[in-house]
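Checklist before submission:
- one chain only
- standard amino acids only
- sequence pasted in full

Submission:
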Amino acid sequence: MIRCIRCGMENDDKNEVCGNCGYSFKEQKVEEEYRKLLREDPSVPEEERSGLVDSPILTFVFGLLSMLLPILVFSFLAWYNYKKPSKVKLEPLRNLGNIFAYIGAALSIFLLVYIVWGLIASK
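Returned file contents:
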């Protein structure tokens, strides 16, 4: 017996659609696989599992620091943590940290050029 995830009705294993609501059991299998993927952690060794939460947060923090304190090292640290695997739910935070890192790198380069240009122009 197959239970429909939409209406909860029990159906024969032979049925391709739900007898009550018409929901396709092929779609149901795809949706169940998708939900399973969302719950699972990426495939990483056991000793690195705690980093699945740390890397998106660190990417965001280092990206924000690279914007506030235009030091190029913070941008590189954000990019390093951006490459590590993470949980899917924290993906937007990680992407935002990456954007901040690019902005921080641009600010760092602009500041460096400004300082060098000021030294050259003052001579």
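Reviewer check: Helices lie at 25-39, 51-68, 72-82, 91-122.
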